[in-house]
Amino acid sequence: MQFQWYPGHMTKAKRQMQEDIKLIDLVIELVDARIPASSRNPDIDELGKNKARLILLNKSDLADEKASEAWMEFFRNKGYFAVKLDSRNKGCMKTVSTVIAKACKEKTERDRKRGIKNRPVRAMVVGIPNVGKSTFINTFAGRACAKTGNKPGVTKGKQWIRLNKNVELLDTPGILWPKFEDQSVGLKLALIGAIKDEILNIDELVLELIKILKEHYPGVLHARYEIEEEQDVMEIIRQIAIRRNCIQKGNELDYTKAANLLMEEFRSGKLGEITLEFPVTVA
């Protein structure tokens, strides 16, 4: 499978970000905790040069906690602030506020020395489509001020949001990069739903997911579907179809239905807390 997706509005969004970055004190980048490296747009590092940086490992409730801790250490070693969170959980936001103040401490001190008091930190929220930016902003602000949706591309334009007297946020549309140099990055983005399912072959995608689960999370498929994992991937999907009664006309097994079922159960966390990549692979 070849993974590619770069609609025209993303080119425009990147140009707009290059203009907006001049107004910004802090870049808050949301990544998906299940694929923290593959869900980072490499353009953001170039755009955010010389700015304070905060990386939020979102959807950490779906990710392997041990792996998330390793990723936090990985990012901190690179000089970024890092917080893991579930953006729907208000309880995480106090930690985020504390880290924003810490990340912008130097800027606040400079303002104070110049006699500038109470100027809010201006933060840009960035991230690829469907990583949870709008949900994070709404939870942080405590009101529905950014559109949310579980499909890529819901945020179409920019908007400033005054969270409180200390922080203003600039929301931006999610942008993907022009080309996946490494197709495994595209694969992982497709698995978490960052690329529209309509342009993907879910049957093929699920076979790749099964390979990853067998290697890194042995026993998960057996626990969920009561099947033997020591079989090839096609036989595993056949067994899932049998176990979950995925039948089509003519009493034939419906492999596509079984594939969609497995994909949905992975994405919703029903298979357990699973991370698809680990820091050693990108160090």
Helix content: 40-55%
Radius of gyration: 21 Å
Q: Major sheet, described briefly?
A: 6 strands, mixed
Order of helices and strands: HEHEHEHHEHEEHHHHEEH
Mean pLDDT: 85
Shape: elongated
- Gap from first CA to last CA: 26 Å
Number of strands: 8
Number of helices: 11
Query: SS-based structural class?
Result: alpha/beta
Beta strand %: 5-15%
Strand order of the largest sheet: 3-2-1-4-6-5
| Low-pLDDT segments | none
What does the secondary structure layout of this molecule look like, with pairings?
Blueprint: H1 8-20, E1 26-32, H2 42-47, E2 52-58, H3 65-77, E3 81-84, H4 93-103, H5 105-113, E4 121-126, H6 133-141, E5 159-162, E6 167-171, H7 183-192, H8 202-216, H9 220-225, H10 233-243, E7 247-248, E8 252-253, H11 255-267
Parallel strand pairs: 1-2, 1-4, 2-3, 4-6
Antiparallel strand pairs: 5-6, 7-8
Helix pairs in contact: 8-10, 8-11, 10-11
Structural features, described:
- This protein is 41% helix and 13% strand.
- The mean pLDDT is 85.
- The chain is built from eleven helices and eight strands.
- The longest helix has 15 residues, at 202-216.
- The chain starts with 7 loop residues before the first helix and ends in a 16-residue tail after the last helix.
- It has a six-stranded mixed β-sheet with strand order 3-2-1-4-6-5, sandwiched between helices. It has a two-stranded antiparallel ribbon with strand order 7-8.
- With 283 residues, the protein is α/β, with parallel strands linked by helices.
